[in-house]
Specification:
Length: about 325
């Protein structure tokens, strides 16, 4: 049985400017211990997908339809109290900006301890002792000292490590990592990603890695789902995606990756046009206004179909 099985998820934001169709009919499956990369341009619905799994879509957003089965239980059918017992304990999220995710008026130790006392039968002192060990496990030096400090007293890399410590505190089955290294410099990014990979492998947790970085996907993910304008346009295992990309959007993303070439010899390719407004999506295939191989058939939106074993593509020309 899959650890996570999302079926036909649709999430909209109802604003004065119109209905923002953030996610449309999204289906995903994830097995225990596997890493799924969710990739695409900013605004394509990656973060909203993660928030929908936790049923934390902010106002004026609403999950319109679909089912999200986690360990065989439909999360969208649970009460608010039942969902609170799952968040942090069985499903955790690492946010992309720890300075806004962490509470500035509480020490990092108190914030980690709060996760433990909320989900486990431990005393406050036991939770604080565990917080020290968690900080040690994520590579923070002098954890006995750091546990008493506030978020603003820590560097960006340390704050992100605190977020990871909070996420793994209750040994969840699934971690949602939303652009976990965006705000960090390159050297710190490498350390954080190595740490995440080690923890995920040692604890056997599944992970959804939300990113726009295809290099990160190639290195860390087992499977990949490429999103565009709230839809999955291609999904397969990582090796297959990089060896044989089928959707023109995926090919465009691949072609835009900088490669070491002689200076002045090759121009970096780009995808023409811009991502459509989610309040005014084009008819038919949402990528067609930017697509170089579009045909008359593209005025009808294609379904996500299996073109090869385990390789799903939403494109008429890929069939």
């Amino acid at each position: 049985m899959d650890l996570l099985d999302i079926q036909g998820l649709t999430t909209h934001f109802f604003t004065r400017a119109g209905v923002i169709k953030a996610i449309h009919n999204l289906s995903l499956r994830l097995q225990k211990g596997r890493v799924l990369g969710l990739v695409g341009e900013s605004g394509c619905g990656k973060t909203v997908t993660a928030l929908s799994i936790l049923n934390l879509v902010p106002y004026p957003g609403k999950i319109v339809s679909g089912k999200i089965f986690f360990e065989g239980q439909d999360l969208l059918a649970l009460s608010a109290d039942e969902m609170r017992t799952i968040r942090g304990a069985k499903i955790s999220m690492i946010f992309q900006e720890p300075m806004t995710a962490l509470n500035p008026v509480f020490t990092v130790g108190n914030q980690i301890a709060e996760v433990l006392t909320a989900h486990q039968d431990v005393s406050k002192q036991q939770a604080m002792d565990a917080a020290v060990e968690l900080l040690r496990s994520v590579g923070i030096p002098s954890p006995e000292k750091r546990v008493k400090e506030y978020p603003h007293q820590l560097s960006g890399g340390m704050r992100q490590r605190v977020m990871i410590a909070m996420a793994i505190a209750c040994k969840p089955s699934l971690i949602l990592a939303d652009e976990p290294t965006t705000a960090l410099d390159v050297t710190i990014q490498a350390h954080i990603l190595e740490l995440l990979g080690t923890i995920q492998a040692e604890m056997g947790m599944a992970m959804i890695l939300v990113t726009h970085d295809l290099g990160l996907i190639a290195e860390r993910a087992h499977e990949v789902a490429v999103m565009y304008a709230g839809r999955i346009v291609e999904q397969t295992n990582t090796r297959e995606l990089f060896a044989n990309p089928q959707h023109p959007y995926t090919r465009g993303l691949m072609a835009s990756i900088p490669r070491p070439v002689q200076a002045g010899k090759t121009r970096l390719k780009t995808i023409p046009g811009t991502v459509p407004r989610l309040t005014d999506l084009p008819k038919g295939c949402t990528f067609s206004p930017r697509c170089e191989i579009k045909t008359a058939q593209c005025v009808v939106e294609p379904e996500l179909v299996e073109v090869q074993q385990g390789h799903l593509v939403r494109c008429w020309e890929a069939r």
